[in-house]
Amino acid sequence: MTLRSGLVDFYDHTWQIVGRIGKNKTLISINIPNAWRVEIDRRAAVLSLTRSAYAAMILEKWVRDGMPHVSEPDRLMQLSSRSKAEPAGGGLPVLTVREKSPEPPDTSFT
Question: Taking the CA of residue 81 as centre, how many other CA atoms within 13 Å lie in the half-sphere pointing to its CB?
Answer without folding.
Answer: 16
